[in-house]
Predict the 3D structure of the following.
Amino acid sequence: MRYNIAVFASLPNPSFDKDRSLTNRAFEYAIIEEVMKHTDIYDALNDQALLNTQLTVCGWIRSSRESKSVAFVELNDGTTLQRLQVVLNKERFPEPAPFLKLGMALKIKGQLIPSQGKNGGVELEAEQIDILGDCPPEYPLQKKRTTLDYLRTIPHLRLRTNTFNAVFRVRSVLAATIHEYFQARHYVYVHTPIITASDCEGAGEMFRVTTLPWNSEFKTENDYFANDFFGQKAGLSVSGQLEGEVCAMAFGKIYTFGPSFRAENSNTPRHVAEFWHVEPEIAFAELPDIIEIIEDMIKYLVENVLKKSRTEIEFFDKHYQNGLIEKLERLLQDKFGVVTYTEAVDMLQKCGEKFQYPVDWGCDLQTEHERYLSEVAFGKPVFVTDYPKEIKSFYMKQNDDGKTVAATDLLAPGVGEIIGGSEREANLDKLLQAMQARDMSVEDYHDYLDLRRFGSVPHGGFGLGFERMLMYLTGIENIRDVILYPRVVNKIF
């Protein structure tokens, strides 16, 4: 800690006895407060009451330049995407070079005055500068190198760029807005297990949780797991849905919001092994109700992010997706499209596009198909409903046609699927039939089946990929650029 000696001298008879009395601790705090007390740059830029007053700011240099009589520093402290221009008059700072290094951290005291530039605003006329953290010339964030591909190699530093500053501001606002939406509508926020014995969807894409290395002395896999921490096979959760249904049968409406993990060997711009998941479960609801809730929620999120993160969204509109604001504002006005899977397949087969993957009834729609439907066929988000039961999960309600289930995916332009949901099968006999058709262990799902035995009701839910929603809101095309440390195939930071 750097102590301010002037403050030390002004305090009456300071003492430093061994018991560190309350008086001594208060004295030490007074010194620290005087040294580090500062104004957030957000407030300096936006609070008119601070104009023409003396204040202290702290931050990192994002850019600097020098002319004959003055030097300029653009300072950012993380409280806003915007930067505060600091003016270093050479009469006061005849050799400003030590204070102009890109990336260095400064504490600057001065007068906040109206800016002399053509864009108006305010600037700080520096009177005193302290270097809090120096930065050498090899600082990696140089303009000529800061492509998104390069920045992925330095995730610990990339947050200091405008792009990632903006991404994570939007991420913060979006997360808070999700809680606002559900809390205002009487949903109960629950925390479902991260370590689980169930892979939920039966896809077998779980990361194993174990305390044991492989030991060839175990004759079978069951023997191996019997000696493990839990006495059985365990993994990281791919979804909190099954536990969410347990909660919905008690509280009516619940939501989870936390990490999910999928060991899926998909090295694409839309997939990571660890991601964040929003999963509501709603009792007394059928598929049309679920679709209505999804559209209402998405519009609420978009409207509030546009309002609370306008500066950041304008940045993305300018630098990443021209027309982004217009796209988001149009979403608020338009009713989302709805098309059945069967109708969608027919549209794709007749559209004349040459897809990499052929389209036939019964196939799982690929990203290229999803983007055609949302970007070309409808030009807006679209729900695809009633998928073939063979390509969907066992828990989805079987439709009367015997071929499809009451499921829906929401496809968004530029991203593809961002939400998957369904009405859940509430009939015990039909659920058992679906499990037996997939050779699933009924014993492993005893608790889940009890929900159908004891007071079953029509219910449904959905999962929102948090990072994919961020991609849609920002125009960022790679999911690895909207998450702090992306975990992907063959790479962990």
